[in-house]
Inverse folding.
């Protein structure tokens, strides 16, 4: 029985911190696979060069996606 998990993927693209949420059926998600999945799921990032990819598993249902893995300037 597979169970889907929600992950927050944070990364740097064009010197700007960004993040995307992905649903993945694995209990863990390594940064290399996360980068591939982000580029597949979000066409605007297909040709982008991502760096410093970080993965955070969202375990609580009420845990929002607005917790960046990278500092976002105001």
């Amino acid at each position: 029985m597979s169970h889907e998990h929600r992950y927050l993927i944070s990364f740097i693209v064009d010197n700007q911190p960004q993040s995307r949420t992905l649903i993945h059926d694995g209990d863990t998600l390594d940064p290399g696979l996360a980068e591939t999945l982000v580029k597949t799921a979000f066409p605007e990032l297909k040709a982008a060069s991502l760096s410093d990819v970080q993965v955070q598993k969202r375990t609580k249902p009420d845990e929002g996606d607005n917790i960046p893995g990278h500092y976002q300037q105001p």
Remarks:
- Residues 31-41 form the longest helix (11 residues).
- DSSP finds one helix and three strands in the chain.
- The longest strand covers residues 5-13.
- The CA atoms of residues 16 and 72 lie 8 Å apart.
